[in-house]
Specification:
The protein is mainly α and about 80 residues long. It has two helices and no strands. The longest helix is centred in the N-terminal third of the chain and has 35 residues.
């Protein structure tokens, strides 16, 4: 019982970190778009912003999938 709760804590911390990465990526895109009033994905000048956003959101989603709650073992 103690072993299961000890291994659950690092998973929750990692899941929380990747949640923050996901939210930071979305926030970065929204704040940048609001400041510069440019939401057009197809403009060449905006490629860097979308690259950063895609990487942050991608790492956030993949990390959250990998560190979600593990299924309970059958009893």
């Amino acid at each position: 019982m103690a072993n299961a709760s000890a291994s659950a804590f690092p998973r929750r911390v990692a899941f929380g970190f990747y949640t923050l990465v996901l939210l930071a990526g979305i926030s970065f895109y929204v704040i940048w778009g609001a400041i510069y009033r440019s939401w057009n994905v197809f403009l060449r000048e905006n490629a860097g912003v979308y690259a950063v956003t895609v990487i942050m959101v991608g790492f956030g989603v993949v990390g959250m999938i990998l560190y979600r709650k593990s299924p309970r073992p059958p009893q």
